[in-house]
Every structure is written in structure tokens, then in C-alpha cells.
Sequence to fold (131 residues):
Amino acid sequence: MIRTAHWLGYAGLIPFISLTLGMSLHPLTAVAFTTYSAVILSFLGGIHWGVALSKPQWSNPTRLCLCMLPSLLGWLALLLPMTGSLILLIGSYLSWWLWDRAQLIEPDYRRLRVQLTAVAVLCHLVWLVQT
Fold:
């Protein structure tokens, strides 16, 4: 996997970490955190959508429908109260990580996803404890 993908992945953690560290600074920080989280969750589904469209053996209605699941769960999380939103987002990140692990076997991508998911989920857990 190209180095740029790693740097962009790690840079994507900056909002998670900074909003978690600044959670008590402004009332809209919680909205910013959950909104960013929903956007990133949607992006994870888009990765599978791209793979499904580029690999004929993966391009089937079931897989394409599953690719939409992170976007729908992220949107639903934005409609819930904060505690419910955080629980749904944590469960979605962990579930999608398991799906990634079962479907995408590239070792470098798997390693990166473990690291990124661990930090994102940890930030969500901090929010959950503080809520």
C-alpha cells in the first residue's frame, strides 16, 4: 500500500483525537465528533463499494447493498441521542472492521485498519464514559 494512504489514514485520526481532547470546550464539540465519525464510517463502506465495482467476482447485489450499510448506520447515529449514537458508532466500527478483516486480505491494509479502528473506537469510548 502506498505511503500516502498511511499518512492520510493517520491524519484522519486528528479530528477524533482533537475533538476528544477538547470535548469540554464547546457544546458543539459532541455534534462535530459524531458527525465526523458518521462521515468516516460512510467512507469505510465506500472502500468496499470501490472494490466491488473493480472486481467482477465481487460485483453482486448483496455485496453492493452491504456496502451501503455503514452510510445508513452513520446517518442513523446522527438521529440518536449522544449515548445511543456513540454505542451505534462503536458497534458499527467494530463490526465493519470484522467484515474488512474477512473480506480484504491485503496485510498492510489490515494492519492499518486495526490501528485506525483502535484509536477511533478508543475516542468513542472516552466520549461514552464522559457522557
Observations:
- The chain has a mean pLDDT of 93.
